[in-house]
Specification:
Radius of gyration: 17 Å
CATH topology: Rossmann fold
Number of helices: 8
Strand content: 15-25%
Oligomer: single chain
Bound molecules: nicotinamide-adenine-dinucleotide
């Protein structure tokens, strides 16, 4: 029970397939307490169903990251209801659908802005706004993808966003190191989720991954959740600013 006594806020759960929910389950399995975010009313019912029967029932709260005020409101609710926390998980990304279907060169100014603001700036804003309620020794995690460093057809502007996200992890790790707060990214192989289904050719990505990864399979949600437990726990106390692949080894292959 390596997370006993640790409180972790996780943003955002859309449904039972969300990586955020997999991370929540692993945290609870290892003794930690979770606070769970959802983007808007549309997802609230899903989350209420997921936590039904859990005891103690986690605090759930709405957090749309398109404004700093909404993030501040979320922090205040947590501060009042729970107090300080030991971990923050940012599992949020969005790009307008057309940007994930047309060639990258066609990406418009507005689609680019939205993708980078929701998928990258929100991580910086959340880290800054939550900083004062994270205990020393705390850990911040975000979720990235291999499309940050290699071309994955159709991933397009999300690849650019994930590069910026991984760079932000390093700069935030530097800034927050003096508070003894660590910042890392997990880079999972493809997992069937609501966000992933929005990428054209996603099913082919799953198949290619099975065929080419050294372990000859796709990764499971649980494996990403368990890696988050490691990064949130004392076991990883010397690790910050890193991107950790949970991809059955796919990224090491040259051919
Ligand atoms: N599924 C994969 O194959 C895969 C692989 C690598 C990385 N990731 C990353 O994992 C993270 C979680 O995605 P997922 O695959 O679990 O899909 P998901 O759809 O379950 O989760 C995405 C979450 O982002 C939230 N979100 C989108 N716009 C938002 C906004 N404006 N404000 C607040 N929340 C907002 C959604 O409500 C949802 O809860 C993303 O960063 C994604 O890029 C996913």
């Amino acid at each position: 029970m390596i997370l006993t006594g640790k409180k972790v806020a996780i943003f955002n759960v859309a449904n039972r397939k969300s990586i955020a929910w997999a991370i929540a389950q692993s945290i609870m399995k290892y003794g930690g307490e979770v606070i769970l975010g959802y983007q808007n009313e549309r997802f609230k019912e899903n989350l209420e169903e997921l936590i039904e029967g859990l005891s103690p029932k986690p605090l759930i709260l709405e957090c749309d990251v398109n404004s700093d005020e909404r993030i501040e409101e979320a922090r205040e609710i947590i501060e009042k209801g729970i107090g300080k926390i030991d971990g923050l998980v940012h599992s949020i990304a969005y790009a307008p659908t057309e940007a994930l279907k047309s060639p990258f060169i066609e990406t418009g100014r507005e689609a680019f802005r939205i993708a980078l603001e929701i998928s990258v700036y929100s991580f910086l804003a959340m880290s800054r706004i939550f900083r004062e309620i994270i205990n020393p020794g705390g850990s911040i995690i975000t979720l990235t993808y291999y499309g940050s460093e290699k071309v994955i057809p159709n991933y397009n502007v999300m690849g650019v966003a994930k590069s910026a996200l991984e760079s932000s992890v390093r700069y935030l790790a530097y800034d927050l190191g003096k508070d003894n707060i660590r910042v890392n990214a997990i880079s999972p192989g493809p997992l069937s989720t609501l966000a992933a289904r929005g990428i054209s050719g996603f099913v082919d990505m799953l198949q290619l991954h099975r065929e080419r990864s050294p372990l000859k399979r796709n990764v499971e949600h649980r494996e990403v959740g368990d890696t988050a437990v490691f990064l949130l726990s004392e076991l990883s106390s010397g690790i910050t600013g890193e991107t950790i692949y949970v991809d059955a080894g796919y990224n090491i292959m040259g051919m």
